[in-house]
Amino acid sequence: MPNDLKKRIEALLFIISKGLSTEELCQKANCSKEEVFDAINELKKEYELSDKAFTILNFNDNFRMTVHRELINGVDELVPPDLSKSLQKTLSMIAYKQGISQGEVVRMRGNKAYDHIKALSDMGFINAAPEGKSYKLTLSEKFFEYFHISKGEQEEKMKNLVNKMDIKLNGVKDTIEN
Question: 101 has which bridge partners?
Fold first, then answer.
C-alpha cells in the first residue's frame, strides 16, 4: 500500500470530525474500497502498536478518528449536564436492551420513563419507532458518536458504563449479564 494513500486517508479522517463513509473516502482519496479498508486497518494497527491516544471507529459505514474512551476522565465528564441520573438509568436500560418496547421501560422504570423517553429522543440519543400500540426504542447514531462506541462494541461498553455509574436497573443488569 502506498504510504501517501494511507497518509491522505488519515488526514481526511483527522480533518473531517463527523467521519466519512467508505464511498466518500474512495472519492476523496481516489482509490478503491479495498485500498480504503487496507489503509484503515494498517492505521489502526499502527495506532495500537505505538500506543497512540486515538483510534478509528466504524459505525454504519462511517469511519471517524476519535480519542480512546479510556483516556477520557470519568463518566460524568462524558454525560451532558442536562442528563440527570434518572435519565442516565433509562438510557442505560435502552442501551442494554436495544430494541426494547416503551412499555417495558415504563414497567421497569415507572411512569416517569415517559418523560425520560421524550427527553432522550429530543436530545437525539434514542429513536422511537411505532410498534403496535407502543414504540420500539433503539439507540441513535448520535449516542454511539457521543459515547465513542463503534459497531460491535455496544454490549461490552454498555456493561462497563453501567458498572462505572453503579446503576441498578431493577434486574436488567442481572438479566443482561446472564
Answer: 136
- Please give the chain's pLDDT, 178 residues, in tens: 677 999 999 989 888 877 899 999 999 999 999 999 999 999 999 988 888 878 888 877 888 887 776 665 554 455 555 677 788 888 888 887 778 999 999 988 889 999 999 999 998 889 999 998 899 999 888 887 777 676 566 566 666 655 555 544 444 444 333 3
Residues 62 and 16: their CA atoms lie apart, in Å, by: 11
CATH fit for domain 3-67, picks 3.90.1010.10, 1.20.20.10, 1.10.540.10, 1.10.10.10: 1.10.10.10
Residue 13 to residue 7: CA distance in whole angstroms: 10
Q: Is the distance from CB of 128 to CB of 137 less than 8 angstroms? A: yes
Which residue is it, cell 415507572?
Answer: 110
